[in-house]
Amino acid sequence: MINMNKQTAVIYARVSTADQEYDRQIAEMQSYAKAQNYKVVNIYKEKLSGANTQRPELDAMLKAVADGSINMVLVWDLSRLSRNAKESLEIIEALNICCCCLHIKGLNINTLDKDCKPDMYATMFLQILSAVYEMERKSIRLRMKSGFDHHIANGGKVGRSLGYVKPIDQIQYFADIKRNLKAGLSLRKTQGALAQQNKKVSLGTIVKVQQHLSKEKAI
Description:
- With 219 residues, the protein is α/β, with parallel strands linked by helices.
- The chain has two domains: 8-133, Rossmann fold, CATH 3.40.50.1390; 168-218.
- The protein has eight helices and five strands, in the order E-H-E-H-E-H-H-E-E-H-H-H-H.
């Protein structure tokens, strides 16, 4: 049974891209937790698509729930958990098994009652809403594909324009390559040093950076 007098809560916040912010989500859920006298012990936040299967913060939150240290998860909207209906319901089921209530702030819904029983109306509503989210995501993909196909059918081109050269400082791991070369490491030692950090770079790319540094030095 959930102890309503001593709720141990966590906040889970997510946005889809790196240039978006989750501050509003967190602030609203903190205010709600304070009003309900919940003790927020952690905030899990990540900038990843809801369709991404690799979400370390979500995994960490679920592990904490499974360990029995949390009995309330606060989210701003169901779509923050996942854009996939099946995954959303699986996450809710995992929380239910651990007697951990999910509160969805935007809908003012709790998935469990005070006796740790699934709320019938919340369950039905969430199943419908999850399906709608997934249909919306599929519809967006179809519209994008339709627009792309139309563009190609009308002679449109994709990819970089002819003669385009990527700026040298936009090469992946440019700063790391530059630092190692300036430290006196050879081409292969630079490649090996990056490989140890799980950064795979071709020798050709390192040569390009070396040539760029030589030109900079000559100026």
